[in-house]
What does this fold into?
Amino acid sequence: MDLRKRAEFSLAFNDAIDEAGSTCILGHINPDGDCLGSTLSTMAYIKRRYADKGFRDRTVKVYLDVASEKFAYLEGFHDICHEDSDQVYDLCIVLDCGDAARVGHFLPLLKAAKRKLCVDHHITNEGFAELSLIEHDASSTSELMADLFEERYVDRAIAEALYTGIVHDTGVFRYDCTSPHTMEVAGRCMSYGIDFGEIIDDSFFAMTAVQKAALGRVLSEMEVCLEGRIVFGHIEARTMELYGVTSREMDGIVDQLRTTRGALGAIFMYQCKNRSYKASLRSNTDELNVAAIAQTFGGGGHLRAAGCFMGPDLKDDKEKLLSEIRKQLGT
It folds into this structure.
């Protein structure tokens, strides 16, 4: 963590906001808690900043895929734009994306913008914007945004979004990306009177009855691979339809596999509408860099949490992933 670097970038970040008449904010495909927390808090922050400075005719919009309704308590959730636009924005802020392609079908907005800014913490991010803050050891993009915002413009709604992002990317402060500064930022958010317990229960732990049923199916059919070091689970599209769950309700399943006693990591694959599979990878040790494995297949992420899209052959793709794991573990 480099607080001085964050402070210097904060000046450039806020200057860029002040100079832009129009701003679009993008995040990664299949937005999770940190993606939503960082993008929605940034939109709210900019609106507060505009109001205070008396700006007129300014626009700020968030463009993301449809996200889980469990995050509907966040301010601005129902204002998210889900369709692309041909508008040319003065400033495009890309958050929580390891590379430009991760914004999905909103890439034309990024390319057309007059100025591009990125804040991220993915280890695979090599810097694709003209102005970037990339800190691989940060717990979350939400933590980074909290240090960029001027305190006078932060309120309860912004703190709620930031706390949500931090909670989700730290696994409620359990993952090793959690630092003393992470806890300091979380404490600052709590000081605004947010209902932190409800955020954790409702957005991280709570599952619907159909989600729990689907989870039970995955757990009942899970496999232990590589002499017990990797736990593998999957669910096919027809089974998801049977239980009435969608891809947006697959959150948390891979972590249930990861916490199997003795496992060094876990793989969870679910089938998408196009019959291909999305693979979520988790690691319990620095010896297993799942970001590198995901990158091999066109994905990315963090040292201990990453993902990628695979083909339609579950058995073949499972073996490809296990083969890469064997290489890392030296077996």
User: Anything to note?
Assistant: The mean pLDDT is 94. Residues 237 and 273 are 7 Å apart (CA to CA).
